[in-house]
Amino acid sequence: MILPPxxxxxxxxxxxxxxxxxxxxxxxHADSPVCRSEGFSxxxxxxxxxxxxxxIATLNIVNGDLVANGQxxxxxxxxxxxxxxxxxxxRVSHPAPVQSLSxxxxxxxxxxxxxxxLQSIIEDIxxxxxxxxxxxxxxxxCGADNLSLQEVTALTRAMIQAGDTIDWELPMVIDKHCVGxxxxxxxxxxxxxxxxxxxxxxxxxSSRAITSPAGTADTxxxxxxxxxxxxxxxxxVTRVGGCLAWGGSVRLSPADDLLIQVERALDIDxxxxxxxSVLSKKIAAGAxxxxxxxxxxxxxxxxxxxxxxxxxxTFRQVAAELGLNVCILCTDGSQPVGCGIGPALExxxxxxxxxxxxxxxxxxxxxxxxxxxxxxxxxxxxxPGLGEPMAREKLEAGDAWGKFQAxxxxxxxxxxxxxxxxxxxxxxHEAGVxxxxxxxxxxxxxxxxxxxxxxAAGVHxxxxxxxxxxxxxxxxxxxxESSGELNYAVDYLEQHPNVVELQPLSETVT
Length: 510
Prior knowledge:
By secondary structure, the protein is an alpha/beta fold.
């Protein structure tokens, strides 16, 4: 006789130490009575309960001796989500059907979703009711231009409501975001330091990289602790005026980081979800005024001014519906910013600019002052046209560097960025002038080298468009934390030698 699960002896939990990212995985032996009674098979979605807590996890079946008959194995994310200990009693059963999956299927077939439907999808994602394959289906269904303006607004609201929000009780809380696609464009730490030195409140929360080799959170993590909870964040901002935190640790729009994990695997960052991601994080963090930086270039994420104008219009309309003031800044996206691409290499550029070092990348400094200046004007701290000089003055006087140190120390420390042990240099075979740099190929090479998972990995590119290059001069250096990843990146570079293009001197006009 097969007993129902509630009559069976509880299973003994086994912490297997398997890292499955955000995916909740459990492991049962193939001969487990629970599998027989419930009809579970590999990849079944199961409800796992313990001491009043529950998760919905994906089942993996074990045929060997990793898990015994009366045991249930847990991946690290599943163990932590249930807050288990070795004495916990575990029961598993079939979960209730996930109604919101029908809305995902509707979107796959081109139907328009309403606010309650999108809210249901987002809440189920945050509650762990979706496996990665379900999240991937939702992301794909919303890709390209498949979300209407009303759907983007509804999705943004749903993502805000699924998490916590912060009210600073201030008339102005300012923030910024770059839509990405431009390697090395790590202006946020510099901009936040300048603005807080000017007396503004800037609770900067950032995502980790999606399709790029580093996000602001990845870069800042090599310098200080970015995993702040809500109370820590509020305390730090109250004391020093700003922070540079990972939004996922504060549980502001928690669906965003769950979506990002799958978007990274798919290498997808669609326009509608981009807008919802950015604005939900900013509104949840209590921002009242936000500057959106849209780099435009032939190999940037946004390739034409027409596309930039369309994206800017979406930002403006959704922000207006949600009561957020936005300023759009379209910037040059024709080449990388700074020299470093990857968390540690970008952190070194940031430190060089903040410390006013002679070898600091001037383009990163100029871009940060441009963005900070626009935000100072947005905040009415500078007259039109005078914001950038004001920002530059705060930077060059050392005030921004002082603020950056204060922010890092308030968050726990100011560390030295790590250095990769393996490197490869691409050199010029002949003299010429740099005529093109492919942002997308550079990002791909940096990711193949290990960035952002390996913080010291990435690409260092010291050349800019228009630079005159001599034979044997270094065009770029690949940095890696393992020889295998270095070889992988070098192989790709050899297949795509046009990542940096030189025009022979004989063809240049003097």
